[in-house]
Amino acid sequence: MNRGRKLAIDPQHDSVWEALEGLRSSAVVSEARAFASEEALRQQRRRRFWSNLFAFSPARLATATACAAAFAGAGWWLTTPTIVEYATRIGEIRSETLADGTKVILDTDSRIRIAYTGKARDLELLQGQAHFDVTHDAARPFQVTFGRGTVTAIGTSFDVTAFANSKMVTLLGGRVVVEGAAGGGARAYLSPGQRVTLRPDGRLTPPSMVDSESVSSWQRGRIDLADLTLDEALAQVNRYSTTKIVVREPSLAQSRVSGIFRAGDVDAVTAALCAYFDLKVVRRTPEAIIIAKSG
C-alpha cells in the first residue's frame, strides 16, 4: 500500500485505475486513488497561493507605486528645503503667516528668504526689519540669520533688524539665543525686553533693556524716535518715504532728538526739525527736502 501511495497517477485517469484494480485488490486501489486525489488538491492549492502572491494587477502596481512615491517624497521633504521670499516696498508694511503657523511682519523696504524642511526652519533677513511670532516646534528650531549673526528660538516673539549700519535683535516674549560671528562662539541669551546689537566685526554687545512698546511701534505705522542722534533719527524716518530729508548742518549730526511720528510723514518731521533747531527748507524736490540754518 505504501508503494501504491507513491504512484504519480492523475486521479482523473479512470482507465489506468481500472487496470490497477485487476492487478490488486479493489480496497487497496481505492485507498491509493483517494490519496492521489487529496495530493492533487494540495498541489492545486499551492499553485494558487504562489500565483496570487506574485500576481501584480494594474491596480496593485499603481498602489505599490504610490506608496513608494510617498515614502520617497517624505524623505525628500525632510532634507530638501522649500524656499520662499517676501519683500516690501518703501512705505509698505506686510504681514505673512508661514506654513508652520509662524507670523512674520515685514517693515518697509525689507526682504526675507525662508527655507523650511522637515527638520529645520531657516530664515535669512536680507535687509530691513521683521517681527516674528514663532509657532512652537521643538523638533524644528526656528533660526534667523542677519548679517554675520544668528538668532535661534522655539516659541518666541522677537524683532530682528538688518540695516546697513545697524543690526540687532530685540526679544519681546519667550527666550532666544543670539550668536555672533566672532571667534570663540560668542552668544547672548536674551530675556523679554532685552536687546543685543551685532557689531561690524561680528561681536555682540552686552544685552540692554529697552522699551518694548517703543520697539514695536513700527508695526502700528508709527516711528518712535527715543533719544536718538539726528543722524540715527533721519536714517529711520527716511526708510519710510521716497522723499528723503537732508539736514545740511554737520554740527547737528550728534544732537539728540525724540518724538513720535506717523511713518512716511516727512512734512511733520521736517516741520518739527525746523522748529526745534531753527532751520528752514531751502530746497524741495520729489526726491529730497533739504533744510539748513535760517539766513
Automatic annotation (TrEMBL):
Top-level taxon of origin: Bacteria
GO molecular-function terms, A-Z: sigma factor antagonist activity
InterPro entries: FecR, Ferrdict_sens_TM
Gene3D superfamilies: 2.60.120.1440, 3.55.50.30
FecR protein domain residues: 86-176
PANTHER family: PERIPLASMIC SIGNAL SENSOR AND SIGMA FACTOR ACTIVATOR FECR-RELATED, PROTEIN FECR
Name under which the protein is recorded: FecR family protein
Taxonomic classification: Bacteria, Pseudomonadati, Pseudomonadota, Alphaproteobacteria, Sphingomonadales
